[in-house]
UniProtKB/TrEMBL annotation:
Keywords: Transferase. PANTHER family: CELL CYCLE REGULATOR CCRZ, PHOSPHOTRANSFERASE YTMP-RELATED. This is Phosphotransferase. The keyword Signal does not apply. It comes from Pontibacillus litoralis JSM 072002. Gene3D superfamilies: 3.90.1200.10. InterPro entries: Aminoglycoside_PTrfase (IPR002575), CcrZ_PhaseVar_Mediator (IPR052077), Kinase-like_dom_sf (IPR011009). One of its GO terms (molecular function) is transferase activity. Signal peptide: none annotated. Residues 13-225 form the Aminoglycoside phosphotransferase domain.
Length: 267
């Protein structure tokens, strides 16, 4: 980073799972730097979805460094995910033809539910661990049985990580959705299910979706639950692969509760 900005800049790691993000400061100048960030960051910036992109530079080794405004702010709390502004910004993203067109031109192909199920099954079969929990196998069977009802849906740009810590509220009261490394072209039910299941009480789902701009119906409900189950299995597998047994157990309990609520398994 120093060879791009100069040795007079103070550069510190910004944290995160990839270790590829940094803060840079020189007197009153402040930047947020990231190595090999999402290539459609410029469009996200132009749409006001992420902080303003200042410049992009390619290094000799082929890495691309982006610099954005470094804004003082904080992540949203879980409670704040209920706010109408969250629903409105996510609706703007899902309905952006510019984002969808660019992501498709960058080679992103629509996410196929069949491939999701196959990937999850492959993880079970080829990972260094074997899930003996019957709930995992019951959930996979449910996903397979429900495939006809989640295929051939309209696809949009999905962020795919609706965690509250990816929502940035600045001191100037501007809301952004950051960290687009996992973005996909997929059924909007994927993002919607994550937010509603994790953060919104069921009694408020209708109002939240009304703000987003759609009506809750049986079809949407079934698709959201399909993706919630698939993502929960993926989280269990991810934590088990990292030998994080307590986190895997927490997600497994969440899966059990979900499957009981849906009548997939009995108590």
């Amino acid at each position: 980073m120093e060879q791009i900005l100069g040795e007079e800049w103070i550069i510190t790691p910004a944290g995160g799972s990839t270790g590829e993000a940094y803060y840079a400061q020189l007197d009153s100048k402040r930047l947020f730097l990231k190595r090999n960030s999402s290539p459609f960051l410029a469009v996200l910036s132009a749409e006001g979805i992420v902080p303003k992109l200042i410049w992009t530079k390619r290094m000799e080794n082929g890495d691309v460094i982006t610099a954005q405004q470094w804004l003082e702010g904080r992540e949203l709390s879980p409670e704040e995910m209920k706010h109408t502004r969250v629903a409105q910004l996510l609706s703007k993203i899902h309905h952006s033809s510019e984002l969808l067109d660019l992501l498709m031109r960058l080679g992103k192909r629509p996410l196929n539910p069949e491939n999701i199920v196959q990937d999850l099954k492959n993880q079970e079969q080829h990972a260094s661990f074997i899930n003996t929990q019957i709930e995992i196998h019951q959930a996979l069977r449910y996903l397979e049985e429900q495939l006809p009802f989640v295929q051939n849906q309209q696809k949009v740009v999905c962020h795919c990580d609706m965690n509250h810590n990816n929502w940035l509220l600045t001191r100037s009261d501007q809301l952004y959705l950051i960290d687009w490394d996992n973005a996909m072209v997929a059924d909007p039910a994927m993002d919607l299910g994550m937010i509603l299941h994790w953060y919104i009480p069921k009694g408020e789902w209708n109002d939240w979706l009304d703000t987003y701009g759609i009506e809750l119906n049986d079809d949407l409900l079934a698709r959201m639950y399909w993706y919630i189950i698939a993502q929960t299995i993926a989280f269990i597998q991810w934590h088990k692969h990292r030998k994080e047994e307590s986190q895997a157990a927490r997600w497994l309990n969440d899966l059990k509760r979900l499957m009981i609520d849906l009548g997939i398994i009995n108590i």
